[in-house]
Amino acid sequence: MKKQEVIPRKETGPAAIGKGEPVVVRIHPPQLKALDAWIAQQELPFSSRPEAIRRLVEIGLTAKTNLKQPSAALANRAKELAIKAVEGIIDPSVPIYQMPVQYAVLTCVGSDSMFPLSSP
Question: Contact, 52 vs 38, CB < 8 A?
């Protein structure tokens, strides 16, 4: 019997750019429209949506966020509003000496000492 020759298979698909982990993401039509619009606005449009998504992820991860702490006046105002809200919730039939406990329960103040999750 004659020996059979093995014909090597040709590789299909685009050449690998790099070794990375594939991530599958489901994108809804409004997001796809926004993505396509962003791609069209670029000076050099990307050849594919995945390339555009990689670029957007890179931009998002390198962007500096400008998170500021609220001013002292704003923090004090928030505290005043919280106190008024808690006072509206407190049970008026509770004796006056138990009011601090009510405040603590409603605001979770001191919850570690009142309701320990683990024994010391």
Answer: yes
